[in-house]
Specification:
This protein has about 350 residues and is α/β, with parallel strands linked by helices. The protein has one domain: Aldolase class I (TIM Barrel, Alpha-Beta Barrel). Helices cover about 45% and strands about 15% of the residues. It has an eight-stranded parallel β-barrel, surrounded by seven helices. The longest helix has 21 residues. The protein is globular, with a radius of gyration of 19 Å. The structure holds 1,3-dihydroxyacetonephosphate. 1,3-dihydroxyacetonephosphate binds next to α12. The site of 1,3-dihydroxyacetonephosphate has 10 residues, from α12.
Length: about 350
C-alpha cells in the first residue's frame, strides 16, 4: 500500500489547490438504474445509447476543470467512445481520475424485513486488481440505511458498516482510494431531527468499524447524505438548517484525518443540492474539503436536454457544465441563486 499516493488521490478528489474545489461525477448507474433514467426521458437503453450518453458527459469541458473524478460502472470502465478512444483515456487526458463502483447491489438482510445489506465482498480482491490494471484510481461502495418504524436496526447498521470497512481495507491493499458511502435514505416522512439521529448512529458505527479494520483514514473519501427531512415530510428544510445539522453531524462523527467529504444528492433536486452544499461551505472553514459526488443532481437537466438525440449533445454538455460550475462554486460557499439564470 502506497500511503502517500492514496492520500494524494483522496485530497485531489476534493481540491484543486489554491483553495479551489473540485467534485466527483457519479456516473456509475448500473444497467438497471440507467434503464430507469432513460425510460423517464423516453430513450431505449442499449449498449449504444448508454455509450452515446456517457460519451457526452465524458467529453464535456467540465471533466478535469470542475470534475476531479468520474465513478464508472463495470461496463463503462471497459467501454470506448464511438471513435475507439477508451473512456478511461478520455478521463485521464482531461486531467481527472477514473473510478469504479465495486459493490454488487443490495440484498434483503435476513431476519430484518425492510432492511438491506450490500453485496460484493466475495472475489473483491481479484476484481480490484483487474480494475486497477484497467486504470481505475478509486472505487465506491454504497451501503443503504432505510428509515421507518423500528428501522434501522443496530444490526443493519453494524453489518453494513463492517462491509464498508472491509471494502475500504481491500481497496487500500490494491492501491485504490475507497469512497465510503453510507446512505441514510431520504424516502419516508421523518423529520430532519430523525435523519440527524439515524445518520449519527450510522457514521459513528462506520468510523468504529473503519478503525477496527485498521483503515488508513487519510486515504479515504467519505460520501454521506446531507441531514434533510424525508421527501414525504410536511415541511422542506431551509439550506441554513440543513447546513447546520449536517456540519454538527460531521463534527460529532468524522475524524479530521479524512481529507474529503463528497456528498450524494439522494433525491434532492439540482438546485436544492447545490444550495445546501453552498450553505454548508458558507458556515466557514472546516477540517475537510466539503464537496459533491452527485449523480442525479449533476445529470438530470443534461439527460432531459439530450433526450436520446445526437443533435442535442452540445446543449446537454452545456447543461452539465453549468451544474458542475454551480456545484464547484457551492463547494467554496460562493454560489447564489442569481447565478443560475
Ligand atoms: P445521487 O447523487 O443521485 O444520490 O447519486 C450518488 C450516488 O453515487 C449514489 O450511490
Amino acid at each position: 500500500m502506497d500511503r502517500d499516493q492514496l492520500s494524494a488521490v483522496a485530497i485531489a478528489l476534493g481540491a484543486a489547490g489554491d483553495g479551489f474545489r473540485k467534485g466527483v461525477l457519479a456516473a456509475d448507474e448500473s444497467t438497471g438504474t440507467i434503464g430507469k433514467r432513460f425510460e423517464a426521458i423516453g430513450v431505449e437503453s442499449s449498449l449504444e445509447t448508454r455509450r452515446d450518453y456517457r460519451e457526452i458527459l465524458l467529453r464535456s469541458e467540465a471533466i478535469g476543470a470542475q470534475i476531479s473524478g468520474v465513478i464508472l460502472y463495470d461496463e463503462t470502465l471497459r467501454q470506448s467512445a464511438a471513435d475507439g478512444t477508451s473512456f478511461v483515456e478520455i478521463i485521464e487526458a482531461a486531467g481527472a481520475f477514473p473510478g469504479i463502483k465495486v459493490d454488487r447491489g443490495l440484498a434483503p438482510l435476513p431476519g430484518f424485513p425492510g432492511e438491506s445489506i450490500t453485496q460484493g465482498l466475495d472475489g473483491l480482491a481479484g476484481r480490484l486488481a483487474e480494475y486497477r490494471k484497467l486504470g481505475a484510481r478509486f472505487t465506491k461502495w454504497r451501503a443503504v440505511i432505510d428509515v421507518g418504524p423500528g428501522v434501522p436496526s443496530d444490526h443493519a447498521i453494524a453489518a453494513n458498516a463492517q462491509a464498508l470497512a472491509r471494502f475500504a481495507a481491500h481497496c487500500h491493499s490494491a492501491d485504490l482510494v475507497p469512497i465510503v458511502e453510507p446512505e441514510v435514505l431520504m424516502d419516508g416522512d421523518h423529520d430532519l431531527a430523525h435523519c440527524y439521529a439515524v445518520s449519527k448512529r450510522t457514521l459513528t458505527r462506520v468510523f468504529y468499524e473503519l478503525n477496527e479494520a485498521r483503515v488508513f483514514l487519510e486515504g479515504i473519501v467519505l460520501k454521506p447524505n446531507m441531514v434533510v427531512p424525508g421527501l414525504k415530510h410536511i415541511r422542506k428544510a431551509e439550506p441554513e438548517e440543513v447546513a447546520r445539522a449536517t456540519l454538527r453531524l460531521l463534527c460529532n462523527c468524522v475524524p479530521a484525518a479524512v481529507p474529503t467529504i463528497a456528498f450524494l444528492s439522494g433525491g434532492q433536486n439540482e438546485i436544492e443540492a447545490t444550495a445546501n452544499l453552498d450553505a454548508l461551505n458558507k458556515l466557514g472553514p472546516s477540517p475537510w474539503a466539503l464537496t459533491f459526488s452527485f449523480g442525479r443532481a449533476l445529470q438530470s437537466t443534461a439527460q432531459k436536454t439530450w433526450a436520446g438525440r445526437s443533435v442535442n449533445a452540445t446543449a446537454a454538455q452545456r447543461a452539465f457544465e453549468h451544474r458542475a460550475l454551480m456545484n464547484v462554486l457551492a463547494a467554496r460557499g460562493r454560489w447564489s441563486q442569481d447565478l443560475e439564470a
